[in-house]
Amino acid sequence: MHSDATSLGLLGTVLLGTVLLGTVLLGVAGCGDDASVVKEIQVQRQARLQTETKQDHLGEVHRLLTRLIELNPDESQRQISYHLNRWLESAPLPEQATKPALFKTIADRLPVASRDELLLSDRFVRSDISHLRDAYLFGAIAKWIDSPRSDDPLLENWLAEQQTKLGESHANQLRSACRFFDWTVRNVALEPFMATPGMQLTPPEMPLGMVFQGAGYRQTDYETVWRGTGDALQRTGVFTQLCRQAGVTAALLAVPSAETGELAPWAVGVLIGSDVYLFEPALGVFVPGPNQVGIATLADARTDASVMRRLNIPGFFDYPFSKQEVQQNIALLNVLPVGMSSRMQHLESRLTGDRRMTVYSDVDEIAHKLDAASGIAGVRIWDVPLLAEVYHTALEQAAQRDPMLGFWYYSRWAIMDANVESSRLFSLARWRHLHGEFDSDDENHIEGARPLYLSQRKPEFEIADLRIDVNLQMAYGIRRELGMPTELYDRQVQQAQNMIRLGKQTATYWLSLIQYDDGRYDTAETWFRKRVLDDSQLSHWVPAARYNLGRTIEHLDEQEQAVELYKTSGDIQEHGNRIRARLLLKSEAD
User: Fold this and answer.
1) Cα gap 134→382, rounded to integer Å
2) What digits encode the pLDDT tens for the residues 204-227?
């Protein structure tokens, strides 16, 4: 709203200036001798207006999105919404905005005024920018991970067979979905549904029936992929965002309770042709097909009892759903209201070449296709993405009121979010990592993720010397104000040392993932084994690193060792890891 008001103010100023100038010019023209000067001014003014009209506003939007992490957040939001609205002036919406029919399934989660602004506004608003950022970033990730290097070895032969069975287009869609799911599982470390804050806090009251640190909504999809950690619902968010950018239809499947009607999510369904293929984010593995071959479809799960039964690990884990319980499913679409708006549909239709990205979802058309699939009893908009936006705002406001909550909230990811130089470099490294820009490009002066992460791996002696190293203190924003008590200063130094160690552990783990995605499996094994899983370096990344070490040594034909890693007791993904171990043993036996 502020930007709109500013734009209107500027427009008013320009109009007034034009009128005054015209009056003055008429007066001057009346003098006769200065007619040529007046004409020159008019020509210059006309040329300037024509230049402004021809400005490539969508090009500016794309340029700003690519550099978003390097820019001031408020200023970049203002500039992007300005350029979008200037573009709209030259390319107005073709028709009056309308509400999709499926919107009613989530309308009660929004105040009436917000519904109209989000869906029907014929101008872009600043809150639209986070939606465009997500579309841009997930599109950038999807581009580089959708390659043969990202193929899961367990599915290579089966996917090759699908080429003949499904046809090239559908087989390619299925292959892309498999790559996106595999990348999500390897790069989003699994968390429990309810996360404890790790320190004594008074839980803030949250709106819309949400609870502090609740499942799914405690992080947005952007925060999940940015931090590389999340629960099964948040993994679902990342996976379905990647699918959308590749034009693959995916939805969370949930089983309605016969007594209460409450929905119990259990898998992500990917629509290929008329079949829905099943992926299980909590287990971190696709649902194996009949005879444990390939990926099961929803039709397989509803007709062959062994499909769901083989998700059990006898003596260890029972899967909570059976063939009888997955007969009827509700498909939940991961779409925010802004992603259904006419202005996003109009914008997407004008994005071409490198600027192309999916910012609009025709939810009614998607629902029509999903509803026709066997086992889908209805389609709704998933409320968790919208709740995540509300939760984020409410938690920020609560953190302003409660100093302890504020400390916890802002310190968790200070390694990337703090307003200090080291955090700026760390976030730039993460941005480059998610773009697949691992190594530096000297010609274009782009520093890659690998050297940027390496710069975050401070040696222990340097961390220990933080108290006396002035340069390091400046890099981490430590200042001893005049009169600051020694005890308070020491606490500040200790907090910074903890932050540097967390940054070092995180950078080391993400460097290990880069080695894997770069196909350097020998190097990746060394990094996972000696730098992340070593007893002297243990961190919260250990279970995810152990899984990724298993995935790494599968490529080095060390299947027996990988199986032993997958059977590690107590890892949060142990249930799914044991299913992968079983599939690996079967593939070896075959």
Assistant:
1) 17
2) 999 999 999 999 999 999 999 999
